[in-house]
Predict the structure.
Amino acid sequence: MPSLFSAQKHIGKWVRYPTSHLNKITTVLLLSSVSIGVSAATIANGLEETLSAAMQNDPMLKKAYYQYQAQQQEDEISFSNLLPDIRLNAAYQYEDSDNIYTDVNSSSYDPDLERSGGELDDYYWKLSLRQPLFDYSSYKGYQRDKALIKESEYRYQRAEQELIYRVADQYLSVLLASQKVYLNQEKLEALELKRTQELRTQELGIGNKLNVLRVTSSRDLAKSDLLRSQSELKDAKTLLQNITGHTVYIPQKWVQNGHSLIPNFISGKESDWLADIYSNLSVKEAQSSIEKQEHNVAARKAAHLPTVSFNLSYYDRVSDDDQRTRQDLVASVELNVPIYSGGRTQANIKKAEAEYQASQIDLDYLVSDKTQQIQLAYNRLLSFKDRLNALVESEKSSAALLEAAERQQSLSLGDQVAVLEARTQLVDIRLQFAQTLNDYLLSDLSLLLETGKLDNSRLATYDNLFEMAAK
């Protein structure tokens, strides 16, 4: 089974001379390596540890989680409409009346009765039960909310996957920016030395000013590239810190040896990956939304149907007036037939049907969009893999050229300018390799995301690959 990576090691000694320019560059780089969040806690290096911190801090994931928890209760709420409704009511009633029973001139007046006194105290309580026997609308509403729960679950899982992608994307951006700073520093050092050599040859009368100006221009451009890389690194660290809540430190050996990593994640045909389109969690969410809307349409239409319920109640009243003291036990079957509701039911049906059509269109669009995303990611993965292989061969050739130039110099058959030119060329190749490797890994993440396969195990794989390449 082919390994996921291969490492190339180049042996070569690069001659350096201490100059004031190099001291200044070193000072700038040391200052730029200071953490941008001094008060933030330091977390372990690596993609997997960074993801763990992000899952505890990221507000978008927290929001998705609590929305998921809230929608989990919809199941209980809708199911309760199918269960018995039991209520207990109790009350105390004081009454001060003036009627025929309190009128002394009335034949109904009796001084021996409490009610003729005009003031009465009543106590009563009532226990009632209502059990739906037939309520098709509530039943379809329950099925609708079960589909809603599945929809919210897929939405939360998608939020988790998107967080994995965002963390990996930003972490790789920090790593790439760090590699650019490291390589641009080496390039600038080589050009500084080359310029020094050109100035010396000019002073000895064997060089020309044109070469000096050409090297000076390249040196100044390299300074600009280094400053831009440092700015990009600071921005990338800030964005990653916003996700994790901590300052993330990239292992320096990963920065220095990233060019030794040759991943090979591509497997299967494009058709095999496209077959997984319905494993995409956004597509699953859209499918659940359609199921939800189907049940919602049925629930709205069922509002035209009659409902049947069984009612049972016990009533106990104690009063100063004996004629008002009572105990009742009542059982009944209630039929409720909707006849006219002002057009509300029909409007709800039309609304539900329109929402169903909208969810169907949303699914069709998502399938089309995600199919395109899978195709793009797969094609890019193939393209970047070919480019990585070509850059590996180019790096081998450039390293061989550098080694030959150094050997010639050691034998006094060549000058240091040739060594420095070879060194600069090798750095340029490694800069291209770092950018292409970053694009390759992002395409791999995108392909896994859009086929519903992205999880933290892929980040652990990246960690292992970078760690092995750094050895």
